[in-house]
Amino acid sequence: MSTLAVIPARLGATRLPRKPLRLLGGAPLVVRVLERVQSLGLADRVVVATETEEVAEVVAQAGGEALITSAAHPSGTDRVAEVARHPDFLRHDIIVNVQGDEPFMRGDAMAGAIAMVRDHGFDLGTAAGKRTAAIMDDPNCVKVVRDDSGRAMYFSRAPIPFLRDAADAATRDALVFQHMGIYAARREALMKWVSLPPHPLELVEKLEQLRALAAGLAMGVAIVDAPSWGEVNTEDDLVRANAHWDSLQTTGTAR
């Protein structure tokens, strides 16, 4: 099954203006994400999806491939679907959405998401990292609960599973997984996802993956040892990301 990785990179971000072009380790953030995905070697083709020529030109200068997409897309998933529909990309069976603000994406997370679709037969695949119970009260850390087959039962910003009795704390803590923003999808499943109207659960939690779950799409969740470093969404995130980048260069550690 041929795999296409798409990196949605919207210039019009609000929390971090001109986010794809902000510098990480001396290069635009979108280029660092592109380099990361290419280095993992998990996709047959990698393309950046953006709404502006400015980002596309930066990607081209870095030797990458970019496609100009509509500025009206409400989500990165819609932008990814537009790329998948393009005649140049119709041969790819699995479409991977790698967020354009995750320059330190774990390779095992991307591989796991793809395997959920390619090897385990799910419509969609994603990944989650093992974390302590400390994330339970952080609404920015999205929690996921799986069934025995690895299929996602629910995602929430709220503490799930809820701990009713303190005696069950160890059991609960073993079930705590932090969702990571990567999705793999069979082509037909991706197109069904974006054809659906927003679901009330999605609107309440502000989590677009709940639209797919509510429609009955099976999403497998690969579990890795820890989440990726995280997303770059704010000025503070960018400062921390640059510090992390510098530390990796100093120690010679791979991302």
From TrEMBL:
Keywords: Cytoplasm, Lipopolysaccharide biosynthesis, Nucleotidyltransferase, Transferase
Metabolic or biological pathway: Nucleotide-sugar biosynthesis; CMP-3-deoxy-D-manno-octulosonate biosynthesis; CMP-3-deoxy-D-manno-octulosonate from 3-deoxy-D-manno-octulosonate and CTP: step 1/1
Entry protein name: 3-deoxy-manno-octulosonate cytidylyltransferase
InterPro entries for this protein: Cytidylyl_trans (IPR003329), KdsB (IPR004528), Nucleotide-diphossugar_trans (IPR029044)
Pfam families according to UniProt: CTP_transf_3
Annotated catalysed reactions: 3-deoxy-alpha-D-manno-oct-2-ulosonate + CTP = CMP-3-deoxy-beta-D-manno-octulosonate + diphosphate
Record-linked SUPFAM superfamilies: Nucleotide-diphospho-sugar transferases
UniProt KW Cytoplasm keyword: yes
GO molecular function: 3-deoxy-manno-octulosonate cytidylyltransferase activity
Family membership noted in the UniProt record: Belongs to the KdsB family.
EC number(s) recorded for this UniProt protein: 2.7.7.38
Subcellular location: Cytoplasm
Gene3D superfamilies from the UniProt entry: Spore Coat Polysaccharide Biosynthesis Protein SpsA, Chain A (3.90.550.10)
Record function comment: Activates KDO (a required 8-carbon sugar) for incorporation into bacterial lipopolysaccharide in Gram-negative bacteria.
A GO-annotated cellular component: cytosol
Top-level taxon of origin: Bacteria
Species whose genome carries this gene: Pseudogemmatithrix spongiicola
Any GO BP annotation: CMP-keto-3-deoxy-D-manno-octulosonic acid biosynthetic process
Gene: kdsB
Matching CDD domains: CMP-KDO-Synthetase (cd02517)
